[in-house]
Amino acid sequence: MSKSVLVVATLWEAIKPFERGDRYEDPLDTALAEGDLGHVCGGGSQLSEECGIEFVDIEIELNDLHRGLVVTRATLEAQGAPKGSVLQFAENGEDHSIEFGVTECLAIFLDGVGLPRAVYESTDINVLADAIDDILSAKSLGEIRGSYCGAEETAIFVYGPDAEQLFAGLKPVLEASPLCQNARVVVRYGKAGNLPRVVRLSRT
Whole-structure pTM over 0.90, yes or no? Predict the structure, then answer.
């Protein structure tokens, strides 16, 4: 019987533990079990002051490394794993890394302290999120996957195949919302290798 191999999947997504289990770990565990290829054996989060979670790790024990890697990558990508994600493992004494992923993130960081008090009193972030959802659904651009409330900014994380298309599609909604004044929008948010760019929305 061949020895099992530990594989660590690093996903550049600000996803909380419960949601991580629902989106990635449970479907992966099921897919691996169907082929008797292995199982998910752990996971963790790298914390960040900017967004709560910078990236997450999923630990996977594979009984059949090469078949298991194929199923692991396919399952995580089917669940929308972000570009820049990596599978890391050791084989024959050598470390290996396989980059994967299919989605890009548009991160909208709302100014939580610098706008007039009347703006915060008269607006609701849930209304903004609903407006974003409507555009995403109507244009099949992607989905909101999470949010984070920090000391000075509140973030909304939107994922889809193309972050530039996400920004272009959502820009009219963002520019029309008083709550988005002075917002910091990061296109291709996540891993530095994804070459993120930052757009600062204007004040009205």
Answer: yes
